[in-house]
Amino acid sequence: MPARDGRHDFDFIHGRWQVHNQRLRQRLAGSSDWELFEAQDECRPLLGGVGNLEEFHTDWDGGYEGLALRLYDPAASEWRIHWASNRSGRLDPPVAGRFENGVGTFYGNDVHQGQPVRVRFEWSHASTHGAHWQQAFSVDDGATWETNWHMWFRLLGDDGRLVHEDNVIELRQYALQPGQREVLIELFEREFVETQEAVGMHVIGQFRDLDDPDRFVWLRGFASMDARREALQAFYFGPVWQRHREQANATMIDSDNVLLLRAAAADAGLMPTAAPRPAIGAAASAGALCLGICSLDASAELGFALRFDRQLAPLLQQHGANLIARYVTDASANTFPRLPVREDVRVFVWIARFDDVAQMDTHLQALRASPAWAQALGDGLTAPPQMLRLVPTARSELR
Asked: How far is CA 359 from the centre of its chain?
């Protein structure tokens, strides 16, 4: 059988990227001390597609610039990757290999601080807007490996902002220890927003529940279930969560009330926000959101989205709601079992935006008093709809 032509296997890396780096401070010394820094990266094709050139720039460590030259050898059906930096001014010995089942593995030989090492690069890309590279060294000819550098690539749009694909949504409701919500919000917005997005997820919004002072609600998105697995693995086993997890977990009673969702139709998901995320210290928004959750029995699950569009959505809008998204349960297998999701319910979720809390409350009062609303809900609900009255935190992107 002829070898597969892999000349397009690196096409995914063409473009402009934000790169989150996690680099081991001391290599081959049993260290677990990682340094974190950000970089900018751009890659363009060469030689009609059989090569590409990647340029890497960061302010880390006084300024570091790197260059990767990748060339595909059709006769050998393999890529060779050459790396150079402003520290050495020369091309390092190449690593060579190919992609199989979506993962690229490349091997070579080098010297680290006078010691010969076997070098391994691994590339994966679970979405079109993200990729992951990692480097490992071996001193025993590949019997054991130490990973010493991760790079998480996030694609940048023409406006210089991250490009997100929110095909999978988590709706997370946390029950907190009394009086601990502000503690968690301050920690979350300082430490867990950019660091989650850097490794492949989208922190869509975080909220205070007006009806429960000890509930924190937030939404995050992923390009796919595979991308979710990779991003959660990177974050929850990474240094930022490990450093702050005890403080975060101390605020919580229960963090397992999690619904896995997908858009109810092609145009039903949240639209990208035009404004950038507020910076740390920004003033809180005056807006409010009502998030409705209908728990459905098997008889109602298939047809409820159509019922909502035809009967319920017009009533919501009639009573002042700006309906911005509609979701249904994503019944995919949980790709990161370490974080449970609720598999005991099937739901329909809608999100409505209001100018302020008073407008939202007027809407809800009118809705509850409407015989047409109660009639349109119809059969098939296992409980009355849950209406979460939410106000965005200062750094919530959704507001």
From this structure: 32
Could you report the per-residue pLDDT of 164-193, keeping only the tens digit for each? 999 999 999 999 999 999 999 999 999 999
Q: How many CB atoms lie within 10 A of CB 384?
A: 10
Residue 1 has pLDDT above 80, yes or no: no
| 328, 347 contact by CB (below 8 A) | yes
Q: Are 47 and 70 in contact (CB under 8 A)?
A: no
Phi, psi angle pair for 295, to nearest 5°: -90, 130
- Is 0.85 surpassed by the pTM of this model? yes
Q: What is the mean pLDDT of the chain?
A: 96
Distance CA 202, CA 232 (A): 11
- For the stretch 351-366, what's the b/e string if a residue is b when 16 or more beta carbons lie within 10 angstroms of its beta carbon? bbbbeeeebbeebbee
Contact assessment for residue 326 and residue 318, using Cβ atoms and an 8 Å cutoff: no
CA neighbor of 263 nearest in space, from 312, 203, 328: 328
